[in-house]
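Render Bacterial surface antigen (D15) domain-containing protein in 3D.
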Amino acid sequence: MRLSLAGFFILVFFLPEDLLGQKKWSIDSLLNKELNLVPVPSLVISPEVGVMYGLFIDYYYKTTPEEDTTTRPSLSFIDFQYSTRKQLNAELFMSAYTPYERYYVFLRAGYFDELERYWGNTTPTLGNEDYLTIRYKRFQAFGRFSKNLGERRFAGLGYQYNRFFSSDIEETPFTEFIPSGTNSTIIGLGPVFTIDRRDNQFSPKRGMYLDLYSYSMFDLKANSFAYQIFNADFRKYREVKKHVLAAQLLVQSSAGEVPVMEKFRLGGPQVMRGLFKGQFRDDHLWALQGEYRYERWPLIKVAGFGSIGNTSPTFSGLLSQKIVAGYGAGLRLRLNKSKQVYGAFDYARTSLGTDGFYMKLGDAF
């Protein structure tokens, strides 16, 4: 996600409550109010986009009255963003719990004009500075509708649509690594099962999360079945006073002929920070990461994190490929207490010597 500048503008003019001693002027008092449908400027910094700026129309809400504790907050937004690397994002997002969490509805769709680096697949992977640059356009839509089976266990149907087109590879000396099939149109459908017992979907402190899905993917150009994908995402959170421990295990696997732009990617602001997203990509992926967060001051948390993982052309090869490791530290600035919204600032390095600085909204997982 992204970091709203609105919180920083307010922070410039108002100090925390315990310093001023006047609740009406505290940032907590200002930012603990109900968040309505409002346009806000945004800023994202990461190695993949450089600096991305734009406008978001955000809406944090509950589908039941605030006094109801059985329904967690939901989020919807529309965004328009442009980066210093001439990347364009126009996107619609919704993650919503219906009243009393009887159902969960997720939707994400948009148009993207993107720039991506390509090092090849798992083997061989070029050096850190030896890569192709691919510019392409993409239409994307994915989502799910699931029913609460009780005890926050959700089962339902999910879908995914990706169309990559107008791909162009910039002039490069690494002609032997130029991939084929960078233009593709794929649609998938399949069952989803989720156990979501997190206290908050934006910045969890307690609980666990397990998400499983398997989609059958169809090639719309060839009008035939293309491949199968499977995803398992397990997360666990534990809070002890002001200390939070978080862990995530992610396993992704596919069977069949997967287009190069559809292969699983390691790296980026969510999985393996410090590694450029897509430096390792293939038909199978695993990653294990952990993070420690401590509320050092009323508005600020400090964080330390680490991760390991790799990709492979075969599932069995995941255990024999060289493991990539990442580590780093950062700060979390609280922008809204009632919704537990934080701005994140992270610096990370990897065992390959790569690094990255990230500024965005929300935790990595």
